[in-house]
Amino acid sequence: MSTLTYAVRDSATMLRRQLRHMLRYPSMTLQLVGMPIVFLLLFVYVFGGTLGAGLGGPSGGRAEYLEYVTPGILLMTVATACTGTAISVAMDMTEGIIARFRTMAIARASVLTGHVVGSLIQTMLSIAVVIGVALLIGFRPTAGLVEWAAATGVLALISLALTWLSVALGMVTKSVESASNLPTPLVFLPFLGSGFVPTDSMPVGLRWFAEYQPFTPVIETVRGLLLGTPIGNSAVIAIAWCAGITVVGYLWAKKLYNRDPVR
Amino acid sequence: MTTAPSQPAIAASGLCKSFGDQVVLDGIDLDVPEGTVFALLGPNGAGKTTTVQILSTLIGADGGEVRVAGHDVARDPDSVRAAIGVTGQFSAVDNLLTGEENLILMADLRHLGRREGRRRAAELLERFDLVEAAKTLAATYSGGMRRRLDLAMGLVGDPRIVFLDEPTTGLDPRSRRTMWQIIRDLVAGGVTIFLTTQYLEEADELADRIALLDHGRLVAEGTADELKRRIPGGHISLRFADADGLESAARILGEVSRDDEALTLQVPSDGGVKSLRALLDRLDDASIDVDGLSIHTPDLDDVFLTLTGQPDKEKEPAR
Fold first, then answer.
1. Residue A135 and which of A101, A202, B277, B287 are 20 to 30 A apart at CA?
2. Best-predicted range by mean pLDDT among A155-164, A254-263, B111-120, B144-153?
3. Average pLDDT value for chain A
């Protein structure tokens, strides 16, 4: 068998290990999907009436805000799941089993790809649950099958990018505690973008940041696909960001994994 | 494999490693023939684990040449990895998997195929007395069980060279004996064992050759008997009921160290039955009663204090 075949086979083995871990330790998965749902309910039912009125749309109010905020919540779901990825990578690196893997003739990156694919599956499931809740409380996207598929694709791309970044974050720290803190800013990025309110309602400096940070084009693209709002060049920018973050995260993670373990 | 029968399983020359300013290994030479047991003996922090980590390709060396199973560890680590099994000091099992799943994970990573992997896992569970615990999570295992599972995982791919880093540290005496028996069985199967330990007794029980590591240098190497002969730490300690007994015994025994307060004499001895009998006969002939007796055989303390030339001598002659 070729090197590539072995790499795929080893990664599949590691993915099976990862999925077993998730089944054995479900509280983490529940917590990761619970947080964005809490934020969704909080923003729609507590702040939604007022914020919706400020959007200046035809109907105004809570129902309109639910449409507006759901794409932002979806990005928050991705970011929250990344916290889980960083924690699980950091925990794994403290285990002796990783040292054992390093002394075996297996595809070097398979430990990491196992984590990434496992997390990706977990994130996409979380997104499905969050969309389900949003639909239950009245989210009514205008998207057809193609738009849904495209939106799923964009969400998968940003998940892949942030997951690789989180794998690196999980390895760069010395302790599991700091690994859980490092990706936290990602969870707040949707707030400092177009996730919760339109960026043109923000003061100048903040608006500048909000318009140029990576989450905004992704949110705008998902929003456009699901609700028919204008996308403009957001899609291209979003895909470029995703590709860039993926490459940086992948190379960084690989470099961190290949350095000698220190004890 | 290109390995000729005469080729050593492990060969290292001038092996060096530092972590920052701290020199951990300072020019180590090793030569372990195939099918033998080699024990690296040393206290905590001597560099034992670092040596195993370099030989098992976990970390890189700063200098020196290392060949394991005929392959250079720096240039061809994957060929080395395919030939070795490693059991670390800190158990390398996946706590969230069952014992059986851990073994099957190893079989999958060794590309054994599904059926062969299951067969091998079942066989190892049987051999290491883990059949009953096969379906429970490794997190719930006792220390001895974890160590057995750990070793079993290292053996899934039928390695020709097995590294055991302090395989019995922290185990109770019974588990330790079980582990020793497992290691002997491996050797009987022709496997080369590279073992690190803090216990002289363990090296004595298992190893063909022993090397003493101290502060990153090999301070002695040889068979257990060769090393023991170099250690004058063995003696018989005699305790007397009163000062008179001590005085008369000291007179006939001549050059011995004595402790007047504790009423004891320390007679140098190899600890053998013959020399003990001879000593007691001499005391009997002089009608001296011995109140108590203990035999002190060389232990790791003696080995180190002697062979590393550390200052233990200071207090002895003064008494």
1. A202
2. A155-164
3. 90
One domain, residues B148 and B293: no
Dihedral, A113, A118, A120, A121 alpha carbons, nearest 10: 140
Kindly determine whether residue B109 and residue A20, on different chains, have CB atoms separated by under 8 Å: no
Task: Give me the count of residues in chain A.
Answer: 263
Instruction: Kindly list the strands in the beta sheet with B217-222, ordered across the sheet, starting from the edge strand earlier in the chain.
Output: B84-87, B161-165, B192-197, B37-41, B209-214, B217-222
Q: Which residue range(s) make up the domain with A170? A: 3-258
- Check: CB of residue A85 under 8 Å from CB of residue A91: no
Residue span of the structural domain in which B267 resides: 235-297
Using CA atoms, how far apart are residues B311 and B308, in angstroms rounded to an integer?
9
Tell me which amino acid residue B199 is. Y
- Cα distances from A19 to residues A115, A145, A162, A224, B5, in angstroms, run 9, 29, 19, 33, 44
Domain membership of residue A263 (yes or no) is no
Question: What's the CA gap between A81 and A160, in Å, rounded?
Answer: 11
- Provide the whole-model pTM: 0.81
Residues B292, B145 share a domain = no
Q: Which of A81, A68, A52, A259 is closest to A161 using CA atoms?
A: A81
Structural domain total, chain A: 1
Same domain flag for B185 and B151? yes
Do B59 and A105 count as a contact with CB atoms less than 8 A apart? Answer: no
Helix (H) or strand (E) holding B292: strand B292-296
Question: Side-chain half-sphere of A109: how many Cα atoms within 13 Å?
Answer: 16
Which tens digits make up the pLDDT trace of B122-176? 999 998 889 999 999 999 998 889 988 999 999 998 899 999 998 888 888 888 8
Same domain, B64 and B191: yes
Q: Which of A96, A103, A105 sits opposite B91 (nearest CB)?
A: A96
Cβ-based neighbours of A76, under 8 Å, separated by 6 or more? A35, A36, A39, A187, A190, A195
Nearest residue to B164 (alpha-carbon basis) of B73, B260, B89: B89
Q: Check the CA dihedral A88-A94-A97-A103 and report its sign.
A: positive
A88 domain residue, yes or no: yes
Q: How many domains does chain B have?
A: 2
Same domain, B84 and B179: yes
Question: Using an 8 Å Cβ cutoff, are A74 and A128 in contact?
Answer: no
State mean pLDDT over A14-43.
91
**CB spacing of B86 vs A17 below 8 angstroms:** no
Domain final residue pick, B229, B261, B277: B229
Average pLDDT score over residue span A75-87: 93
Q: Which of B2, B4, B8 is nearest to B161 (CA)?
A: B8
Q: Which residues of B touch A9 (CB under 8 A)?
A: 108, 111
How many of the other CB atoms lie within 10 Å of CB of A56?
A: 10
Q: Which residues from B are below 8 Å from A when comparing CB atoms?
A: 19, 56-60, 78-79, 81-82, 84, 86, 88, 90-97, 101, 105-106, 108-111, 137, 153-154
